[in-house]
User: Fold this.
Amino acid sequence: MDELQAGDKVVELGAMVRSVTVATGSISSTLLLFLARQSLGSCLTAFLIGAITGFIIGLLLSRLLYADGKGNVKIVKATPANFPITVSAALKGGTCQTVVVLIGLGLSGKIVAWPLTVEVVSGVNLLIALAIARLSLL
Assistant:
């Protein structure tokens, strides 16, 4: 792998995880309630709660996976060769947030069609994770 030079574009993997968890939490929660024909107020509440829980989960994951105790973070050079690394980071955040969204909406009693719900949340979160990982390399 190439050495980093001054001026190289980099991707901070912890920031990748935080971005993905906030996006997947807010979008998938809102989409699921919208598809379940819930009120606009419920959808907006789900958007806010999804974003807040996504931020908290992303913060914890990024510190656990991509930071050491000295304040250093893991970065990769923003090249197509590092796409698998950025996708891996994005999917870790998206997967954790998917589980939280499903548990939260399941406990609230808003979801009745579980197989469809799992497919929708997983698909939406996968697309968001892939899009953010790809956009981070531009």
The mean pLDDT is 88. DSSP finds four helices and two strands in the chain.
